[in-house]
Amino acid sequence: MTSTPRLFVIVGTPGSGKDLLIRAVNQLGTLHAGIVPKHTSRARRDDDSEEMICPGHSNHDLDGCDIRYENYGDEYGIKSVEIWEGLRKGDSQVAVVSNLDAIKELQRIFSEFMVLVYVHSKMEAEEYQRQAVQYGGDAGYVERRVAEYQHAFDLYLRHFLAFNHVLIYSGLPEDLYDQIFRLFRAYERGDLPYTTARPVASGRIWEIWDEEKVPGKSPEIIGDRKKA
User: Fold this and answer.
1) Which of 13, 140, 202, 222 could form a disulfide with 152 if both were Cys (CB 3.0 to 4.6 A apart)?
2) Nearest residue to 176 (alpha-carbon basis) of 166, 185, 163
């Protein structure tokens, strides 16, 4: 049985293990999945993972990205054509995105191929502040980390029904590796045929709630919608 490659969209707070997942997937090459590059307008940071394509990189092409979004004043972009190329080769793709508009656009484009995953960490926002005091971290850096933590966690809380899976990072990288590769294998074996964010084939559609239209509402399930 040939499995259908998927686009795994990873959402998580700073320190939740997203960079560990990227590193692990890169080390295995295309055995399970490939990492989706993200182009950005900002300079490279010391804590950036390999997915980040910053100005000065030979492959930097933010203007060529059809999925564009902004986080804290910086622009980011993803090329859907690169994702399709990987999927057509039979390789699942992994994109790390915590921006709601970008997630909704990925869902619109990739529909039943997309799997939405939240990575939860035991680290709380206050821990970033304690680390800054302990290790003498930059105040601006800590402020950004705290804001990113709250943003990602709030995104999950407000739209939790749109997520297909939750991984738990307890501080042991091997545990997180085991969870993500078990998830890959489950899809490769076809054990989870209808767990995408919009399982049209099952007759029920999960929709990420548009908070701008209905502020304060939680996600809802729209059932028994027939395809036009």
Assistant:
1) 13
2) 166
Cα atoms found within 13 Å of the Cα of residue 29, Cβ hemisphere only: 1
pLDDT digits (tens, 9 = 90+) for 95-110: 999 899 999 999 999 9
Strands of the sheet with 67-71, listed across from one edge: 52-53, 38-40, 74-78, 67-71
CA distances from 56 to 19, 41, 59, 74 (A): 22, 10, 8, 16
**Rounded distance between C-alpha atoms, residue 220 and residue 213, angstroms:** 13
CATH of region 7-196? 3.40.50.300
Output the CA angle 90-97-122, nearest 5 degrees. 110
> What is the spatial distance between Cα 96 and Cα 21, in angstroms, rounded to a whole number?
10
Longest dimension (CA), the chain: 58
Quick one: pLDDT band at residue 137, thresholds 50, 70, 90?
Answer: low
Q: How many residues does the chain have?
A: 228
Domain positions in the chain: 7-196
pTM exceeds cut of 0.85: no
202, 167 contact by CB (below 8 A): no
- Residue 165, CB-side half-sphere exposure with 13 Å CA sphere: 21
pLDDT in tens, 195-204: 544 433 333 3
- Counting Cβ atoms within 10 Å, is residue 13 exposed (0-12), middle (13-18) or buried (19+)? buried
